[in-house]
Amino acid sequence: MSSSPTPPAVVLVHGMRTSSAIWAPQLRYLHDAGHDAVAVDLPAHGARHEDRFTLPAAFDVVDDAVRSFGPGRPVALVGLSLGGYTSLAYAAREASRAGTSSSRLVGVVAAACCSDPRGKPVALFRDVAHATVGGLGAARRGTRAALARLRAGALGGRSRAPGTDVPAIAGDTTAPETFRPGWQVVTDALTQLAGRSSVADLRAARVPVWLVNGARDRLRLEEQRHLAAAADGTLVVVPGAGHDVNSHAPEAFNRVLSQALRDFGRG
């Protein structure tokens, strides 16, 4: 009698200025479904709040989590917002190493990260964050001007109603935390992302990628372009949810997560 294949273990990667705490409903769901799963804290967040955020340091965190499941265990990444961009970049890195090492990555669920960070919008938001951290009067005036440009449609050329919040690549605060990262982490993270293209990372990835967005997420600017870039891609839009799709619609997100993991397991 042949035994059923071991389901992939799961590493969950949170968004900007949140922590691993946002994944509590998904961890319970995955464990109940028989998956080994762990939620990590990225540098500058949660238990690692004293570290500075860099992509290499974030990759080290993911590498440690992957190794924690033991040798040879297939692993899927699930990332939200900054965690989604980090997961796509990680998948591209793993693909580049395919000739020299055996990657254990079998798939990526990338949520709330379908706006390519390369280009002017991220640079503008990074400048806003830098000015906020500096706290000088002139910087504050520059911040207000940059915010006005963003609200006027710098992100994708779309207009916004007066008083609309500036969109952030970060996830909103939805879970209680003992530590709330400052704006410096926004500067660091966006500086890291500004030179990368999530579309290029998708083209480079050699594993299935599920793109999951909330229908009300204002960062769904390029989801069709992202989907077209993936060699093996699936797009799911969750009705009624915003940027923090896993928190706004946890039951729907968990169902999508189960479908994705089954897809990854067939590979």
TrEMBL record:
Q: Name one GO molecular function term.
A: hydrolase activity
Instruction: Read off the InterPro entries from this record.
Output: AB_hydrolase_1 (IPR000073), AB_hydrolase_fold (IPR029058), Carboxylesterase_BioH (IPR050228)
Keyword Amino-acid biosynthesis part of the UniProt annotation: no
Q: Which UniProt keywords apply?
A: Hydrolase
Q: Which Pfam families has this protein been placed in?
A: Abhydrolase_6
Task: Return the SUPFAM superfamilies for the record.
Answer: alpha/beta-Hydrolases
The residue ranges of the AB hydrolase-1 domain are 10-255
Record's protein name? Alpha/beta hydrolase
Q: Which organism is it from?
A: Xylanimonas oleitrophica
